[in-house]
Amino acid sequence: MHMIQKKYIVLVLVVAVIVLLVVFKDMIPENASYQAVFLTNSQVYFGKMSTLNGQFSTLTDVYYLQVPPAADSKGDVPGGPQLIKLGSELHSPKDELVINRDHILFVQELRPESQVVQAIKNFKNPPAQN
User: Fold this and answer.
1) pLDDT in tens, 21-50
2) Which end of the chain has fewer CB atoms at under 10 Å, N or C?
């Protein structure tokens, strides 16, 4: 092979790799930590966000808070909000949300010591019962 042909082959391979990285970069998770995603409908979801394409994001390992009613007929207030795993509902949805970015108000990165992250860890690995 001539030296010029080798240079063209190397150049084509480099360009191909760059094109593949640009095309598939949105499929690689941006971050492995948990985020809180605040939506325009006042819902807040917790999970791991990655980008599908320019208009949509996906949230996996999804949780949300369920707030009990303020009080029952006797005036007793039940416990505080409960962390619910997406997929445990009656209709058994897949544990993934594809969210239109126009409906995302903002996203917050959660620290590992966050009460929500700790509750997720406890949900995944419940403490041993004595």
Assistant:
1) 555 544 444 446 999 999 999 999 999 998
2) C
In whole angstroms, give the CA distance from residue 118 to residue 130: 21
User: How many other CB atoms are found less than 10 A from the CB of residue 50?
Assistant: 16
Q: 95 with 63: CB under 8 angstroms?
A: no
Domain 31-124 -> CATH class: mainly beta
**pTM confidence score:** 0.65
Residue with tokens 């990655």: 50
d(CA 99, CA 104): 8
Q: What is the CA radius of gyration of the chain?
A: 22
- The domain limits of the chain are 1-25, 31-124
Q: CA–CA separation, 63 vs 51, rounded Å?
A: 18
Q: Which two tokens stand for residue 21?
A: 């990285």
Residue pLDDT, tens place only, 94-123: 889 999 999 999 999 999 999 999 999 998
Give helix then strand counts, H and E, for the chain. Answer: 2, 6
Q: Give the whole-angstrom CA distance, residue 69 versus residue 65.
A: 13
